Predict the 3D structure of the following.
Amino acid sequence: MPKGSRPGERRGGRKKGVPNKLTADAREAVARAFDGAGGIQALTAWAIDHPTEFYARVWVRTIPEEQRREQTGSIEVVFRNET
């Protein structure tokens, strides 16, 4: 009897789609650090003080890669102070 599995056959391991525990723990730690550092209010204040850093390093990562490739031209950014 040959060893190994047939193509497409799974033997053991985690089920497909189960998140990596280390990744889940890291995300939880970052979320707690975010809350401890002031949360959304602190992020908003930092974004206003550093708009280039915010848009180039943070906001752009929230846009799916496919849409980033499709974007051409310029983007107008308007800050509103709603306090």
The chain is about 50% helix and 0% strand. The CA atoms of residues 23 and 29 lie 10 Å apart. The mean pLDDT is 83. Residues 39-71 form one domain.
